[in-house]
Design brief:
- The two termini are 28 Å apart.
- Strands 1-2 form a two-stranded antiparallel ribbon.
- The protein contains nine helices and two strands, in the order αααββαααααα.
- By secondary structure, it is mainly α.
- A hairpin with a 2-residue loop joins strand 1 (50-55) and strand 2 (58-63).
- It is globular and about 55 Å long.
- It folds into two domains: 7-78, Arc Repressor Mutant, subunit A, CATH 1.10.10; 85-203, no CATH class.
Length: 211
């Protein structure tokens, strides 16, 4: 049976997933009330779990080390309460080979060896090359639908990754190249990295080391 997560838990986890984000973006991540999120974040700051900083005129929230540990504690408690640990662990294991394929596809989207230079930037003039990469990324999107369905059967907060990925793919297929790997927008790469961080944070795993 699906288990809705507590808004405070979602708020802290959103900061974990996003890395650095303003209040509005934190609230939008799980469709929470911005006013309530602002109040919750201030409470978290008083507890030492988040900090607020400014970079280049942009302010945002990030987790402290103590906040990271507390987030992982909340995630562990939620998994055990719902009995969802086996499902999330299985999803993570299924995600790993997909992640390898995704990274390879994005590299091919960014680089196209020419004239013996394997590091040549892809100028996107070779449509056959790009189309093969797009087909690979579309295939990964279909796998993402199945992965998300398994997760949301117990934890609804995982919902939305596949639809966001598909929306970015639709724009990329219209030759809007930035929607594959762009930053500052909900590109395929951004969505994929958020899901990866979501799985790691939920299971309390570090990034890297085969995770």
């Amino acid at each position: 049976m699906p288990h809705p997560s507590h808004p405070a838990t979602l708020t802290l986890h959103a900061v974990r997933i996003l890395g650095f984000a303003d209040t509005g973006r934190v609230a939008r991540r799980f469709s929470l009330d911005p006013v309530a999120v602002e109040s919750t974040l201030e409470d978290f700051r008083a507890s030492g779990w988040v900090s607020r900083s400014e970079f280049g005129g942009t302010g945002g929230w990030s987790l402290t080390e103590e906040g990271r540990h507390h987030n992982e504690l909340l995630m562990a408690q939620e998994l055990d309460a719902v009995g969802a640990r086996p499902t999330v662990s299985a999803a993570h294991q299924a995600f790993l080979p997909l992640n390898t394929r995704f990274q390879g596809a994005v590299t091919k989207w960014q680089l196209r060896p020419t004239g013996g230079n394997v590091m040549s930037a892809n100028d996107h003039t070779d449509f056959r090359w790009d189309d093969r990469v797009l087909q690979s990324l579309q295939s990964l999107g279909r796998r993402l639908v199945l992965l998300e369905a398994d997760l949301t059967g117990q934890l609804p907060r995982f919902e939305g990754y596949s639809s966001r990925y598909d929306a970015a793919m639709s724009r990329a297929l219209a030759r809007r190249h930035e929607w594959i790997d762009g930053v500052g927008l909900d590109s395929c790469h951004v969505v994929w990295m958020e899901l990866h961080e979501d799985l790691l944070g939920t299971l309390g795993l570090p990034r890297g080391e085969g995770n």
